[in-house]
Amino acid sequence: MKSLFRGLLVLLLGIMTVINTGVVSAKTLKTTDMQTTTIGKKTYYMVKTEEQLREIGKGKYTMSYNYILDANISLTQEWVAIGDDNNPFTGSFNGNGFTISNLKTTNKTAKYIGLFGYVEEGSIYNVTLKNVDIDSAGGKGKHVGAVAALCLDGKIYDNVVTK
């Protein structure tokens, strides 16, 4: 009977170790990791958090990818526009009916001021911005636009900005 009890105890502890190991592995995922979805023949990176939105154009999330908003996002820190003349946004961004709130830029030396700074041959559409504060940002030679500050040969359409 003791050996049966010990065997069950060892089995139970083994199962708990496997379960706990899986939980630890899940916690090691970065909050900036984006899931993907395929729409038509295009792969889109799904943006669900402020951290993920800030990752566009950095590291593995290049300026040429397709992005789709998958949740409302309320920004908590000063915003730095996505893209500049050295690294323009060339992909697509679909707001997908969700809202980005509290976009604020006050940097007096910012050259590009808006959600996107410099877009070249990219597409920005279906974006809704609420509570935008960009009036005091930038200095001489600044480019300002709530959705995109500057767009060359791109498409920006069906966007809404509300106070």
Question: Helix and strand layout, with pairings?
Answer:
Layout: H1 2-27, E1 36-39, E2 42-47, H2 50-55, E3 66-69, E4 73-74, E5 92-94, E6 99-101, E7 112-113, E8 116-120, E9 123-125, E10 128-130, E11 143-144, E12 148-152, E13 155-157, E14 160-162
Parallel strand pairs: 2-3, 3-5, 4-6, 5-9, 6-10, 7-11, 8-12, 9-13, 10-14
Antiparallel strand pairs: 1-2
Q: Unreliable segments (pLDDT under 50, ≥5 consecutive)?
A: 4-29
Choose one word for the global shape.
globular
Number of helices: 2
In terms of quaternary structure, what is this?
single chain
What series of H and E elements makes up the topology?
A: HEEHEEEEEEEEEEEE
How many E-type strands?
A: 14
Helix content class: 10-25%
Structural class: alpha/beta
Distance between the termini: 73 Å
What fraction of the residues are assigned to beta strands by DSSP?
25-35%
- The Rg value, from CA coordinates, equals 22 Å
Query: Mean pLDDT, as a whole number?
Result: 86
Largest sheet: 6 strands, mixed
